[in-house]
Amino acid sequence: MSEVRVLIADDQKVVRDGLATLLDLLDGITVVGTAHDGDDAVRQALTLDPDIVLMDLHMPNCSGVEATEQLAAAGARCRVVVLTTYSDDDWVFAALRAGARGFLTKDSSAEEIRTALITVSRGDAQLDPTVQRRLLEALSRSGASPELPVSIPDNLTPREVAVLRLIAAGRSNSEIADELYVSDATVKTHVNHVLAKTAARDRAQLVAYAFRHGLATP
After folding, report:
1. Is the whole-model pTM more than 0.85?
2. Helix axes 173-180, 184-198, angle to 10 degrees
3. I need a labelling partner for 60 at 20 to 30 A (CA). Which of 5, 38, 54, 150 fits?
4. How many angstroms separate the CA atoms of 120 and 107, rounded?
5. DSSP labels for 141-185?
6. Contacts of 115 by beta carbon, 8 Å cutoff, 6+ apart
7. Residues 50 and 93 in one domain
8. End-of-domain residue from the set 123, 138, 153
9. Total domains present in the chain
10. What proportion of the chain, given as a percentage, has pLDDT over 90?
11. Selection from 50, 4, 2, 49 nearest residue 23 by Cα
């Protein structure tokens, strides 16, 4: 496997330098640059063409959410992994809608960071379970209806809705298979159908889709 090239974006120099030192020690990871805010992250990402931008959310001038949106609009090849804290619930959800493909909390271990960066670089999504739980709590506080919609969007079948709801609850394919008493291969087929019908790129976007259409509830 080739090295995953990472650009770090954080407004705190001590955090940038610490992350750069840490990531350079990890097998399969190469830091290609560091950025001090969202504008700098966009400029460097378009120039350096990293595989991953490890993006802080709260930055001056241009936030991580705005930078993520700009990279998507520019057609950048890189994928964004958000680095967040417990107080960032609303921002995390906004970043998810903007196209972020992974989420990490700032107390993640080195191995958890490495796993997320490699997973997202391969085209999959990686949501920290704690972040996902906080998103569900934020949704609950927002007063979203716990009821499923009367009409199911995008011609999803009841079984596909069941799979989608379990994805939004953070279940893996294997866990979904156990809960629905079907094979892993069948779950994979359902997931592929849901991705195609909803035009979602990955599981992170499926979570956002489920929240948006009221198919996932706290």
Report:
1. no
2. 110
3. 5
4. 19
5. HTT---SPPSS-GGG--HHHHHHHHHHHTT--HHHHHHHHT--HH
6. 126
7. yes
8. 138
9. 2
10. 44
11. 4
Give a yes or no: residue 24 inside a domain.
yes
pLDDT of residue 65: 87
- How confident is the model over 132-147, as a mean pLDDT? 56
How is residue 199 written in tokens?
């035009």
Instruction: Mark whether 121 and 156 lie in a shared domain.
Output: no
pLDDT tens digit sequence for 11-68: 999 999 999 999 999 999 999 999 999 999 999 999 999 999 999 988 888 889 889 9
Tokens coding 115: 């796993």
> Which structural domain range is residue 129 located in?
4-138
C-alpha to C-alpha distance for 45 and 169, rounded to whole angstroms: 32
E strands of the chain, at which residues?
4-9, 29-35, 52-56, 79-84, 102-105, 126-127
Residue that has been written with the tokens 């629905």 in this structure: 180
- Give the mean model confidence (pLDDT) for residues 87-104: 77
